[in-house]
Design the sequence.
């Protein structure tokens, strides 16, 4: 099983991702957070294998959150999930320690495959 934390400041996106992940065998959403502080607390409680993190958050940004998560003892692998997945974001995400970047326009199958790749220790960067 792959435990996943979803971090997005839009309630509908968070709820949609959690519902989508619940329907995929082997992937279990263990938490959902709206921002940086909420995500850090949730990660400490749930110890996810993968954190799906939006780039733009209401109280910070996904890259800062990625860096903070990576500094923790039980660090999840971070997948930056953004509607602005440009080449510049790919480089910045890698510098922050993200294991992958995925555009929000990706298909559910592509999302599931990327989560599995990241959880297995592979990089999912274009």
Sequence:
């Amino acid at each position: 099983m792959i435990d996943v934390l979803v971090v997005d400041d839009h309630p509908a996106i968070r709820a949609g991702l959690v519902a989508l992940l619940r329907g995929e065998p082997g992937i279990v959403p263990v938490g959902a957070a709206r921002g940086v502080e909420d995500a850090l607390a949730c990660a400490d409680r749930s110890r996810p294998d993968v954190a799906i993190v939006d780039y733009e958050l209401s109280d910070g940004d996904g890259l800062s959150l990625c860096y903070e998560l990576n500094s923790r003892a039980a660090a999840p692998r971070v997948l930056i999930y953004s509607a602005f997945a440009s080449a510049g974001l790919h480089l910045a995400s890698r510098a922050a320690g993200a294991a992958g970047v995925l555009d929000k326009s990706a298909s559910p199958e592509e999302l599931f495959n990327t989560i599995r790749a990241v959880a297995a220790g592979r990089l999912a960067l274009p």
